[in-house]
C-alpha cells in the first residue's frame, strides 16, 4: 500500500501479564473503510485506543498520517474523529452545546462551529432535538450525536468502536445509512464490530481478530471465498440427536461444524445436499440453505462463534 | 482538512477551553450555587456573630483573640473554609464524573486537548467558583460590619490561596481514587470536618493541647486563617511566620497540581 494513512507493525499492548494485542500488522489506505471484526475481548478496542493516540502501546510501531501517535498525540488527534464504544456526551448540556463545546476543544472558531452544527444536525437527523438535553435522547440518537460530534473538526479519519452495539434493528439501519454516506464522501473509516452483517455492509477490507491476534485479512467477499464454501446448509435434528447423527453427515459435505443447537454443512449446493440427506433417510426437523457469511469464516478460523 | 485547526494555539489555551466548558456546566446550577454561597454565610453570621459571639465576649471579652471581635476573629477562617469547600465541590465531583460516571475526560482527551490541560482546566474553573463564593461572603462580612472595607480585601486572595492549596490535593486524590463509594464519607467526616474544627478556626491553635496542634500545622485552613488575620487585623504574627504560611500554601499548591496533572495523564493513557 503506498502512503497508508495508518500503519501498524508488530503492535503489542500488554496489561500486566495479559497480552491484549499481540504483534498485529495492518495498513489503512486513504478513503478506505477498514474493519476489525472479532468477539468481545479480541483486542479491538485496545487497538482503537492506540490509534486514537490516547493509549500507549507496549511495543511495535504505529504511524498515523506519518506520525507516531505516542510522540505527537495532540497533533495526531487534531486529524481524528473518535466515536467510543460507550457514548461520553455531556448529558447536562443540549445537543448543540455538546457539539459546540467539542468543536472548541479543536480550537475552531465560533463562526465555523456554528455553521458546522447546522450541517451536522441535518446529517445526524437531530434538527428537532437541537435544544434538547442529551439525557433525554434515545440510544440511537445519542449514538448519531456522538458520531456527529466526531465529525465537527472535519477529520481525515473517523474511528468507530462498536458503532451499533446496543441499538435496535431500526436504529442500526439508520446508522449504517449515515456511515455509508460518509464512506461515499471519502472519509476514511476504521471501525470495530462483532456483528458480521455490519462488517459485510460497511467494510471494504477487514481483519478477523481473536485473542489479540489477526487471524485473516481481506475483503468480506474474498475472506468468504477463501475460508468458506459458497453455501451453508443448517440442519437441526433436535439437540440430543444432533451429536448422534453428526458422524454420518460428516462424510456427505466438504466441511461441517456441530454447534450445540444445529449443524452447519459447508457445500457448493445446499439444496442438493439437503436432498441427499433426506434420501439417506435422515429427516431434519428444520433446515435452512444460505450464503456463507463472515460468521462462517470466523467459525472456521477459531472454532468458535462471534457472539457467545 | 479545512476546518482550521491550529494545534499550537490549542496547546497554549487548551486548559482555558476546558475551564470554560466547566463553567458552562456550573452555570446550569447557578441558582443552587448562588443560594448555597450566599445562604450559608448568612446563617453562619447570624448564628455565630450574633449568638455565640455575644456569649464569648460576655465571658472573656476580646482578651483571647488579641483584641479582635469574636466574629471578626473567625471571619478569615470562614472565608478560607468557604474557598475550600467550594473548590472541593468543583474538583472532586467533576473529576470522578470525568473519569468514571460520564467519562467526559475521555471525550475531551480524544481531541488535541491533553490530560494535563484537562486537570488544569478543571482546577481553574474550581478556583473561579471559590473566588465567587469568597467574594459573596466578603460582601456579607462588610454588610454585617465584621470587617471594614480596605486592607481586609486581602482576605479574598488569601482565602482563595488556601482553597487552591487544598483543592490541588483534592484534584489529585479524586483522580487517583478508582472506587469512590467511601471516599466522600471519609473526606467529609474525617478530613474536612476535623480540619474545620482544629485549625484555629474558633480559637487560637495554641489554646489546644500540644498533641492536637499538628493538625493545624498541616492544615491549609490554619495557614490561610493566620495569614488572613494578620493582613486584615494586624493579629501580631511575625514576618517569618507570614513567609512560612505563604511558602506552605504555595508549596502544597504546586505539589498538588504536579501530582494531579501527572495522574490525569496517566489515567487517561492507560
Low-confidence stretches of chain A: none
Order of helices and strands of chain A: EEEHEHEHHHEHEHEEHEHEEHEH
| Number of DSSP helical runs of chain A | 11
Name the shape of chain A in a single word.
Answer: globular
The H-level CATH homologous superfamily of the largest domain in chain A, spelled out, is P-loop containing nucleotide triphosphate hydrolases
How would you summarize this macromolecular structure in one to three sentences?
Chain A is an alpha/beta fold.
Please describe what this structure looks like.
- The complex is a heterodimer of chains A (308) and B (270).
- Chain A has 11 helices and 13 strands.
- With 308 residues, chain A is an alpha/beta fold.
- Chain A folds into 2 domains: 6-219, Rossmann fold (3-Layer(aba) Sandwich), CATH 3.40.50.300; 229-291, Alpha-Beta Plaits (2-Layer Sandwich).
- Chain A has a 6-stranded mixed beta sheet with strand order 5-6-7-3-8-9, with helices on both faces.
- In chain A, α3 crosses α4 (110-123), α5 packs parallel to α6 (169-184) and α8 (220-227) crosses α11.
- With 270 residues, chain B is mainly alpha-helical.
- Helix content of chain B is 76%, strand content 0%.
- Chain B has helices at residues 7-27, 30-60, 70-101, 104-109, 115-143, 155-176, 183-198, 213-217, 220-233, 239-268.
- In chain B, α1 packs across α5, α2 runs antiparallel to α3 (70-101) and α3 (70-101) runs parallel beside α6.
- The two termini of chain B are 29 Å apart.
- The chains are: A alpha/beta (308), B mainly alpha (270).
Amino acid at each position: 500500500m503506498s502512503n497508508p494513512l495508518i500503519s501498524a507493525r508488530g503492535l503489542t499492548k500488554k496489561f500486566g501479564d495479559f497480552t491484549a494485542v499481540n504483534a498485529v500488522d495492518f495498513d489503512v489506505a486513504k478513503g478506505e473503510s477498514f474493519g476489525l471484526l472479532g468477539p468481545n475481548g479480541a483486542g479491538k478496542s485496545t487497538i482503537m485506543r492506540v490509534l486514537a493516540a490516547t493509549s500507549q502501546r507496549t511495543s511495535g510501531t504505529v504511524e498515523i498520517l506519518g506520525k507516531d501517535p505516542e510522540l505527537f498525540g495532540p497533533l495526531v488527534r487534531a486529524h481524528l474523529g473518535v466515536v467510543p464504544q460507550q457514548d461520553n456526551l455531556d448529558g447536562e448540556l443540549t445537543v448543540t452545546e455538546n457539539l459546540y463545546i467539542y468543536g472548541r476543544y479543536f480550537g475552531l472558531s465560533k463562526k465555523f462551529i456554528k455553521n458546522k452544527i447546522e450541517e451536522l444536525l441535518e446529517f445526524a437527523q437531530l434538527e428537532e432535538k437541537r435544544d434538547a438535553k442529551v439525557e433525554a435522547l434515545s440510544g440511537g440518537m445519542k449514538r448519531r450525536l456522538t458520531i456527529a460530534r466526531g465529525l465537527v473538526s472535519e477529520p481525515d479519519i473517523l474511528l468507530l468502536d462498536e458503532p451499533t452495539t446496543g441499538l435496535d434493528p431500526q436504529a442500526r439501519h439508520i446508522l449504517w445509512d449515515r456511515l455509508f454516506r460518509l464512506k461515499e464522501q471519502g472519509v476514511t473509516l476504521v471501525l470495530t464490530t462483532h456483528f458480521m452483517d455490519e462488517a459485510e455492509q460497511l467494510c471494504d477490507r477487514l481483519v478477523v481478530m481473536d485473542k489479540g491476534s489477526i487471524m485473516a485479512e481481506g475483503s468480506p467477499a474474498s475472506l468468504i471465498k477463501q475460508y468458506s464454501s459458497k453455501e451453508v446448509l443448517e440442519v437441526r435434528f433436535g439437540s440430543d440427536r444432533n451429536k448422534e447423527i453428526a458422524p454420518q453427515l460428516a462424510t456427505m459435505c466438504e466441511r461441517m461444524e456441530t454447534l450445540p443447537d444445529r449443524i452447519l454443512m459447508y457445500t457448493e449446493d445446499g439444496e442438493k445436499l439437503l436432498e441427499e440427506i433426506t434420501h439417506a433417510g435422515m429427516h431434519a426437523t428444520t433446515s435452512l440453505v444460505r450464503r456463507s457469511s463472515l460468521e462462517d469464516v470466523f467459525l472456521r478460523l477459531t472454532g468458535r462463534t462471534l457472539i457467545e | 482538512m479545512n476546518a482550521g485547526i491550529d494545534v499550537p494555539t490549542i496547546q497554549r489555551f487548551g486548559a482555558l477551553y476546558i475551564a470554560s466548558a466547566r463553567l458552562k456546566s456550573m452555570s446550569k446550577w447557578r441558582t443552587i450555587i448562588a443560594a448555597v454561597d450566599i445562604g450559608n454565610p448568612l446563617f453562619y453570621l447570624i448564628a455565630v456573630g450574633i449568638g455565640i459571639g455575644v456569649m464569648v465576649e460576655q465571658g472573656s471579652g476580646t482578651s483571647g483573640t488579641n483584641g479582635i471581635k469574636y466574629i471578626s476573629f473567625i471571619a478569615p477562617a470562614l472565608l478560607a473554609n468557604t474557598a475550600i469547600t467550594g473548590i472541593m465541590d468543583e474538583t472532586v465531583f467533576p473529576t470522578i464524573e470525568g473519569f468514571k460516571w460520564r467519562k467526559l475526560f475521555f471525550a475531551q482527551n480524544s481531541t488535541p486537548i491533553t490530560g494535563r490541560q484537562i486537570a488544569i482546566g478543571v482546577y481553574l474553573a474550581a478556583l473561579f467558583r471559590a473566588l465567587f463564593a469568597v467574594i459573596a461572603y466578603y460582601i456579607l462580612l462588610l454588610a454585617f460590619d465584621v470587617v471594614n472595607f480596605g486592607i481586609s480585601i486581602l482576605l479574598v486572595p488569601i482565602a482563595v490561596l488556601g482553597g487552591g492549596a487544598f483543592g490541588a490535593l483534592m484534584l489529585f486524590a479524586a483522580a487517583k481514587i478508582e472506587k469512590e463509594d467511601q471516599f466522600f464519607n471519609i473526606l467529609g467526616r474525617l478530613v474536612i470536618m476535623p480540619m474545620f474544627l482544629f485549625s484555629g478556626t474558633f480559637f487560637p491553635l495554641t489554646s489546644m493541647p500540644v498533641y492536637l496542634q499538628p493538625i493545624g500545622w498541616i492544615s491549609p485552613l490554619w495557614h490561610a486563617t493566620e495569614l488572613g488575620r494578620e493582613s486584615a487585623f494586624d493579629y501580631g504574627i511575625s514576618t517569618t511566620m507570614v513567609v512560612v504560611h505563604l511558602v506552605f500554601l504555595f508549596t502544597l499548591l504546586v505539589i498538588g497540581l504536579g501530582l494531579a496533572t501527572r495522574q490525569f495523564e496517566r489515567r487517561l493513557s492507560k
